[in-house]
Amino acid sequence: MTAEDIEKENAAIAKAYKELLKVSYTTLSKEDKILIRRAFEVALDGHKNQRRKSGEAYIFHPIAVAKIVAQEIGLDATSIAAALLHDVVEDSPDYEIDNIEKEFGKTIATIVDGLTKISSLSKEKDMDVSLQAENFRKMLLTLNDDVRVIIIKIADRLHNMQTMDSMRPDKQDKIASETLYIYAPLAHRIGLYNIKTQLEDLSLKYTEPDVYNDILNKIKESKEEQDLYIKQFSDVIKKALDKENFEYTIKGRPKSIFSIRRKMLNQGVSFDEVYDKFAIRIIYKSDITDEKFLAWKIYSIVTDHFRPNPLRLRDWITSPKTTGYEALHITVMGPKGRWVEVQVRSERMNEIAEKGYAAHYKYKQGREKEDSLENWINRLQEALENSESNAVDFVEQFKLNLYSQEIYVFTPKGDLKSLPKGATSLDFAFNIHTEVGMKTRGAKVNGKLVPLSHELQTGDQVEILTSENSKPNPNWLDYATTARARGKIKSALKEDRKRIGEEGKEILRRKLKQLKIDLNESSINDLVNYFKLKTSLDLFYRVGIGSIDNTMLKNFASSRSNTLVSFIKNKITRKANIPKEELNKNEITTNYDSLVFGKEEERLDYKLSNCCNPIPGDNVFGFLTVSEGIKVHKKNCPNALSLQSNYAYRIMTAKWIDSSQQEFLAQINVSGIDHIGLVNDITSIISENMAVNMKSISFESNDGLFSGKINVVVKNNTIIKKLLEKLKKINGIDKVTRV
C-alpha cells in the first residue's frame, strides 16, 4: 500500500469510529466514551497486521460489530467495548485475558473470554460427533458467564453474513446453513426480530441464490404498487386518528424474502398469490398507564373502517410473549379484497420489538435491569441441565421450543402460565415444578379428566393430579414436547435404569456362580457379545427386568466354548457393514445418468435419498453416511440445512453430468374445478410427451372441486417443467405442483 492509501484507510477507520459513538442507542457519558476509546485503541493495536478476505483492514470488522451492538441491539458502553475487543485475544499473541481484565475489569474480560471460547470451538476437529450441534450446546453454557456473550456473538455473525461475498462458495454455504440452523432462532428468542430477519434473508442469498434474487427482483418490481396500496389504506386511518388527536406514525413493513419463500413453499403458491407481503404498523405516543386503553381505541377505529378477521386477532399487550414482545395484531379486509395485517404498538412497545431485551434497560431501573433476562436464562439452563449425549437431538428439540408460538393457560388458582404451542398436560406439570411433574398421575382440563398427552389450548385451566407412587415411564417421552419436561423424564429414566442395572448385576453374579462362571470383565464382554448388546449396563438392566432369564444364561454357558468362533464371526460381519474405502466405479456405466463429486469431478457410487427424491438437473449435494455410502439430497431438501450445518465435513459438492438415459419417478399434484373430460385432457397431455411415462394416476372429486396425484417417469427436470407448464394451461386446473 502507498502512503496515500494508508492515509485514506486511517481516515476511514477514524470516521467509522466516530460514527459508532454517534449511533449509540444509549446515552454515553464521558466515562463511557473514555472506556470505548481505550477498547478501540487496544483493538487497533491487536489487529494492526491483519486483513480480511476482502482485503480491507481487520479493524473494520470489530467496529461494525460494535455498531450493531450499539445501534441495532442497543446495548451499553460495556457491551460496545467488549464487541470492539471480541477477537483481540484470539487473533493477537500480545493480548491475554489477564491483560484485558487488568485494563478493562472483570465484566468485559468475562464477555471477551466467552466470545473467545465460542470462536475456538469451531476449530476443534472431533469427527465423532456433530460439531456444530455440540458447539451450540457449549456456546449456550457461556450464558453462565454473561448473556451478552451470546448477543455480541449474534452481532458478529450478522456482520460476517453481510460481508461474505469474497469467501469460497462451499464456505458461504456452510456459514449460511449454520446461521439458519442456530443464530436466527436464537435472535428470534432474544427478541431481536430485525436481526433475525436479516440473518434469514442473507442465509437464503447464499443457500438458494436463484430463489433469493428472483423474489428480490419481484419485490422491487411490485414496490410502486405496494406503496400506493399502503398509502390508500393509511389515508383512511389517518383521518380518523387525527380526529381523535392521536400522536402517531404509520409505516408499511414489507415481509422478508425468507418468509415470502417459506409461505410459497408451505402453501404451494406463487409469489403473486402471497397476498400479505407487507404489514401496516401504527406506532402511537402514550404514557405507560394509558398504553392498553389507547391500543384498543385504535383497534376500534381500524375495525370501524375495515372488516376484521376475528380468528386472526392477537393480543400480546394483555399477555406479552416470553421474549417481552407486546403489540396488538389485527388482520382486516383492506381495499381490493386483500387481507392486511395491522400491528398496533406504543413507542415503548416498538422499541422492545426492535431492540429486544436491551430496550427494557431504558424503561427499568436498578435491579430490574438485571432481572429482565432472568426467566429466559432460567429456561435455557433447564434445557442444558439434562441434555442428552446426542447433540443433534438436543439442538432440534431446543430449536423447536425457541421457534414455537405460545399458548397461555391458567393454574387452578388463576395464575397465568406461558407454554409453547403444542404443549401437553404433562408439559404443564413439569412447568409448575419438577417434583409435580415426577409425581403426575393425571390431569384435569376445564374440570374434565384428560390423558397426559392432551394438547392444551390458550385459555385452558389445568389441574395436575399427583400420587406418591407415580413415576416417569418411557411412554411419557411420547407425551412431552418441551425441552424441560423431556430432559427431566430422560434423567429420571436413566436413574431408574441404573438402579435396576445394579440389582441385575447382583442377580447375574448369583446365577453365573451356579453355572460355575465368575462375573468378571472377560465374562461380561462375552455376555454382551453373545446377546448382541452395546454396553454392560444394557446387560445388567435386561437381567434386572427378567428379559434375560435362566434358560438364556444356560444356553450361553453351553456355547461358551465356541465364543471365540462367534466373536470372530461378529467381527467379520461388522467389517462388512463399514462403507468401502475403494468404491467400484465400474458399476456405474455410461448408459446411465450419474453424478460427479468434489473438485476432481469423480464418479462415485451413490444412492438417491428418499426424503427429497432428486432427479437430474436438480441442484444437489452428496452426504457421506456411516453405513450407506454417499446419499444425494436436493439443495432445498427439508434435511439439507441440518446436514450442512451439523456435518459440514461430510458434505460433498455434486453435479449432474449427463441427463439423457436413466429414468426417475416424480409425483405431480393437481387441483382445480371438476368438469367432464378433465382426466382425459390430462392423460392426453402426458401421452403426447414422448419422454414421459405415466406410472399411476388417482383423482378425487368433492363438491365440484377435484384433487389428483399423478406418478410419472421422466429423464430430467427440464422435461417435467415443460409438462407442468402444459398441465397448467388445461381449462379448470388451478394448481400444479411437483412433490
Description of the structure:
By secondary structure, the chain is α+β, with helices and mostly antiparallel strands. Among the domains are: 3-163, Hypothetical protein af1432; 219-362, Beta Polymerase, domain 2 (2-Layer Sandwich), CATH 3.30.460.10; 491-560, no CATH class; 594-660, no CATH class; 664-738, 2-Layer Sandwich (Alpha-Beta Plaits), CATH 3.30.70.260. Helix content is 51%, strand content 15%. It is built from 30 helices and 20 strands. Strands 1, 2, 3, 4, 5 and 6 form a 6-stranded mixed beta sheet that branches. Strands 12-16-14-15-13 form a 5-stranded mixed beta sheet. A hairpin with a 2-residue loop joins strand 9 and strand 10 (448-450). The chain is globular and about 90 Å long. The model is unreliable at 124-130, 365-373, 386-390 and 575-592 (pLDDT under 50).
